[in-house]
Amino acid sequence: MSLCDLTAAHIRAIAPYQPGKPISELERELGISDIVKLASNENPLGPSPKAIAAIEGALGEIALYPDGNGFALKTALARRFGLGMEQLVLGNGSNDILEFAARAFLGPGTSAVYSRHAFAVYPLATQTVGARGIEVPAHAFGCDLEAMSAAIASDTRVVFIANPNNPTGTFIPAPDLLAWLRRIPVHVLVVLDEAYTEYLSEQDRYDSLSWLPEFPNLLVSRTFSKAYGLAGLRVGFGVAAPAVIDLLNRVRPPFNVNSLGLLAAEVTLDDADYLARGVALNRAGMLQITNGLRRLGLDYIPSWGNFLAFRVGDGAAVYQRLLRRGVIVRPVGAYGMPEWLRVSIGLASQNETFLSALADVLERSA
Ligand SMILES: *Cc1c(COP(=O)(O)O)cnc(C)c1O
Predict the structure, then answer these.
(1) Residue pLDDT, tens place only, 327-355
(2) Domain range holding 265?
(3) Is 134 helix (H, G, I), strand (E, B) or coil?
(4) Among 12, 37, 169, 191, which residue's Cβ finds the most Cβ atoms within 10 Å?
(5) Looking at the domain assignment, is residue 90 inside a domain?
(6) Which residue's CA is the nearest one to ligand 1's atom 14?
(7) What is the 3-state secondary structure (H, E, C) of 246-300?
């Protein structure tokens, strides 16, 4: 028996997360520049200028450990969202928050419920701690709330749900979500992943944080990676009842959020102008891309996020052909959608490059 064979079977069974292809990797492979990456739902504006200025001013301090409690950022979040400090936990990306929920609430002999076509980290976090994943069939690529609550077993401790969902972009209206939450047993933690909530229109926007007093079993996770433009610095946060947060803090590694990330998140939180520019750019780009796909005669799933899933037939083949034209999108075969690709909404020029490369590849005229 080798060292690695002695690891738990549930660890060896994990299929690693497949990230979007980095620009530098495609450059190396093809020897080309001018690559357009629309693969990881990053903010095409780049970071807020305020974040860059703050980081430049703080570079001299990186020999010091960060504030392990993230006091300044938590204070800013508490003020911004009307929360108590004891309702907040910070993560190295919101990915950390999902992992903490799994570590604290799941383990062998328990299960987690999530939808088909849901974010890949839910099954990963579940498997890593030796819990059983219960994948619930989707309805029109979105969460089937009825089926999800019906799937809760006696050993279920966590339900993961993203609103909007990635990679499908589907959205659950707030009244439906709230009514569903009221039917979930209080001994089951609902992890409501709101990575894209900032992109919702005024009409769809809702305040899940105001629901927290009613639900001791609700954990809302949010991120600075998408609308706040800080994916590379890895900052996210969770909001829940103090008792839940206390447990998450016990499994949180010390110093999990770096000092530049803490600072950049704090200043970007107050940069309303930056946020508004990104959201407006996304709205215009979404229109540009959906119009373009319609001209190409392609189906897509209406999206509430900063990305769009569209159907091309052989997703893996079209992905490869787009790569050769210097356009990186995201194959979603691993999400049970082999006929689909996902494209992130970019700058107008990037969206145009994507659409014309796609027209080329499919030999259709735009
Ligand atoms: C991008 C994304 C996240 C956030 O990841 P970070 O770790 O915060 O960068 C979380 N959930 C979903 C559904 C996402 O798409």
Answers:
(1) 999 999 999 999 999 999 999 999 999 99
(2) 49-270
(3) strand
(4) 191
(5) yes
(6) 195
(7) HHHHHHCCCCCCCHHHHHHHHHHHCCHHHHHHHHHHHHHHHHHHHHHHHHCCCCE
